[in-house]
Amino acid sequence: MNRNGFFHGNSVSPVPTKKEDMLLLLFSALGCIVSSSIATKVGKVMTEKDLRRYLFADYDKLVRPVKDPNNAMIVKTSISLLAITELDEDNHTLVMETWTTMKWKDDYLTWDPNEFNNITILNVPDSEVWKPDLSVYTSSSDDSLFPRSNFLAVIYSDGTVSWIPAFTIKNRCPKQKKQETSYYFCNIRIGSWTYSVNLMDIQLIDELVPLNNFLDTNPNWILINAMTNRESKHAFVADRTHWNLNFLLSIPCGELR
């Protein structure tokens, strides 16, 4: 021992105090918790099941999915004709098979793909999401509202929802006459059943009626014209103004083939 009270040779560490012991234990515990958390996060593979739980934990499909209630829901729509299955010349009604495309943004169904194993698309039953209450105003039957079925809705990470149900439209088609030609004029008018223009903005996806998948093989009639337009209408019964989408079809009377 030298005169300052220290031993020569190997040094001896000072004896730790109780306060230092407690601090060491605290830092060790924190280190274990952090390392365990990191290991869990790195080792966890986020699946579609995890994503679905994340999106629908507090989701309400009964209200418009907008975070700002002053914003109108923009719903883009088109009707793709598949086939004309019946033309009742006595009652002036047309029955056709269609695919009806509807797209909108849902503010509450968004996520960061980086946090969910790069998942960018999620397919869910259409009954689980909010859907626009579009209906065919000119339908001649009670099933004017678009189907409530098990067609899947496709959700994209930016909140875009795409729903394309198959739908049978039975529409009134009055007979028209232009010069010497008689034809049936069908205006398939689609709009919201309850939402006014300030709550739902219905837009056309295509300016033309898509006929890529149309089977024009019926021997008794032929589709000669198909157009679209959009207009705003005031409903006096409900006292509201809403958007209408018109899909205009022309079919000559009589047998053409």
TrEMBL record:
GO cellular component annotations of the record: membrane
Highest taxon in the source lineage: Eukaryota
All copies of domain Neurotransmitter-gated ion-channel ligand-binding, residue ranges: 49-240
Keyword set, alphabetical order: Receptor
InterPro entries: Neur_chan_lig-bd, Neur_chan_lig-bd_sf, Neur_channel
One of the record's GO molecular function terms: transmembrane signaling receptor activity
Protein name per its UniProtKB record: Acetylcholine receptor subunit alpha-1-B
Species of the source: Trichonephila clavata
